[in-house]
Amino acid sequence: MMQEHVSLNELMERYVQGAMDKKELEEAIYRFLLNNPSRFWLDNNEEKRLDYLCWFYPRLSRIIDAYQNSGASFDAYLFASIRWSRREYFMKEVAHSRTEAVYWNSRAVESWVYNRDEEYLPVEPSTKPISNPRQVLILMLKSYTTISDDFISRIAPRLNMKKEEIQNLVDTLRRKRLAREDALRMLKERLQTQYYRCLKYEVQLRELPEDSINYNVIQLKLEHAKIQLTRLREKCARRKTLASNRQVAEVLGIPKGTVDSAMHAVKHRSFPY
Asked: Exposure pattern of 183-204 as b/e (b: 16+ CB <10 Å)?
């Protein structure tokens, strides 16, 4: 690549004199860095160099502002800033790579454990009438998050209802619980993030010497992260995923006591479907 012989000090002088605005100066510096990689990059990995420049470009504005009272030439000041920012960039890249490795290794284990090929046996739909359709309907609505369209299609005739009627009841209940579902989903996302943070700290500890200051710092972070993880798990366990009896009663237009009685019967005896 042909290198341009551009004086960064002259560019800064033109900017100070008002011959070019800040945006033009930033673009001129960026072009200089693109065309003169040997001035700031040590290896021949062009992809990483371009990634770094994309990361560095938004910081140019602050570097230009901070230069005013530095007392050094702009050329020297800029490359000193690049040298320090490059350390920050590499540290973040290492942290991101470590986090990504932890995540994918964990997902690989989960995939191996849980994502087995399912074996389905053909089951003939039952036409036997349900002895207490109201109890079944209430139980379905209580556990509405697990109800599939296929199940609704198969259960509707046995409840002597149309599929659309049941689907409408389930959709109404979902709307009533939308805020709770959003809060629970956000809590689970926080829990998952905290779990991977703990794994990342554990990986860092294995890579550090035990007598180093960084080891003690990461160990302390891991202890605090585990405490937070435990609290999030306890908080998540306390959140109810089932619909409340009052919500089910409102959707069905029946007294709450009727739902309470039906759920009590479901818990204390079995009944045929």
From this structure: ebeeeeeebeebbebbbbbeeb
Does residue 80 share a domain with residue 158? no
**199 within domain boundaries:** yes
Last residue of a domain, one of 40, 71, 95: 95
CA–CA distance, 188 with 236 (Å, rounded to integer):
7
Rounded CA gap, 172 and 131, in Å?
26
Domain that holds residue 34: 8-95
- DSSP-derived 3-state class of residue 129: coil
CA distance 44 to 182: 47
Give how far the C-alpha of residue 256 lies from the chain's centroid of Cα atoms, to the nearest Å.
38
pLDDT for 201-224, tens place per residue? 888 888 888 888 888 888 998 999
188 and 84 housed in the same domain? no
Is 70 exceeded by the pLDDT of residue 191?
yes
